[in-house]
């Protein structure tokens, strides 16, 4: 490289040497050579021409890559990451190309000072070791965009030798956690663009000298109530390793037993039970954070259906549409919520999984999916010329569980194979593309194909015998809900109502909802000490009786195993009686709140009476079986202990 490189002042103010900036990490040149400016204006300009390679989520830092190979970081203020972007407005994004002197941001100096932070704007050449031979800084008053530093590049082959050997981030994470006082001393941990920031219960327990001398650590700083371990560009890798060492529950019980990854037992049946149990564990853990919201939304939807049935409100009114949106939005956008929670459970990036959930719930794709039957493999689109069937993923759970599992496998591979300077852009881009494509092109069509076979089987079963079909469908229907295969039933119900005005199949489905609610009610009645579980069970009961079984299933019944099957025994009995008494429904709303759907428009007949008998029998059987055989309050404690072990390792374990 010939000649010198001029660097411009990023802001008007007082130019200072890098050793004079008010941040020990930068002043000690841990991030490389450079300079600082104490600003007297709010306009920030690019100090070099190049491509924007990094924009901090908190807007306080922007990274550039020049054509000459320099990597330049503009850091606005000291510890301003804690202000969550409030004082800053950015005018560039990752991937943009800028010229030296172009305006890239503004910073509210007064707001930064009021927050007790230092306003220094720092320019650092982060690849100094292989690029910079010398730098001269013109100190004093300077205007934004004026030349303030002259950099003499290294000649080819002159770069400072790199330390031998790679940093073992997993070991570094463990060592850092140990020397900040252990898991029990950590309340929380976050990271910014260069530092892992701990909130410690007692800073005095941290061993500064040991941490400073660790390979991969540049320095230690204390500011704003945080214990900051300065890492540099590899901060995300170290942060991930620290999180892995801590476990998701930061500052959790250090005495909790540690669990290694459990090997599957030998034998086909034991292995099947093991992996199915692990899957159920992941599903229930992913659903638990939103159970309360699902229950509340289910109750609201049930009440709205009741109001419409009573003719108090028209289903075409604006009031109905607004209230329906309030109750239905959590189910419509369930892929986003499940993506976020499943990612936390399986160790994938939560934000990226939320975006993938948004892809599956994207209105345009939903419109394509709803134009064709969900129980037939109709080709309704193409992907790079490949004919595919796009399924409807709203209200779905299992596809996002699969997506989070795939993402958890892909992310480490991407981190390993993408250079650090491009990782922030390329890794999320590739992950969203790959995982979304796998779900849409592979997983969705497989579920749809299975649904089509199930639909055909259900129709054939209904023709054999109402009683037998009621027994089998009633006993197994909620199993389909776990994997989203219950969508196979909806078109059949719609077809029955459209052609005959009523549906015997929907009456059987209604009994399964009642059974799940009755099982949750037994848990509510039998729980004496655990107030949290009693509250969940009470809300889940009301939601199931209002026609939404997810809170009961994922919050209680599946989670504790036997309860789900005792509920299914009640479902089977309810389905059998429904079939024997030839119960029909004239609407979609089921369970107890949908009683009006069982009234024949021509007048009350045997269907309504049969509905009452079947519902009563379902409640009695499901409640009694669960109360006597399905649930013991001691199960809560043992299950809680198992879950704590699971969360500590992020590995699925058998229930």
TrEMBL record:
Location within or outside the cell: Cell membrane
Transmembrane domains' residue ranges: 274-300, 320-339, 351-370, 390-408, 429-447, 504-524, 536-556, 611-630
GO terms of biological process kind: phosphoenolpyruvate-dependent sugar phosphotransferase system; trehalose transport
Keywords attached to this entry: Cell membrane, Kinase, Membrane, Phosphotransferase system, Sugar transport, Transferase, Transmembrane, Transmembrane helix, Transport
Occurrences of domain PTS EIIC type-1 (ranges): 281-643
Keyword field contains Transmembrane helix: yes
Active site (catalytic residues): 192
InterPro entries assigned: Dup_hybrid_motif (IPR011055), Glu_permease_IIB (IPR036878), PTrfase_EIIB_Cys (IPR018113), PTS_EIIA_1_perm (IPR001127), PTS_EIIC (IPR003352), PTS_EIIC_1 (IPR013013), PTS_IIB_1 (IPR001996), PTS_Sugar-Specific_Components (IPR050558)
Name of this protein: Beta-glucosides PTS, EIIABC
Native source organism of the sequence: Companilactobacillus nantensis DSM 16982
Organism taxonomic ancestry: Bacteria, Bacillati, Bacillota, Bacilli, Lactobacillales
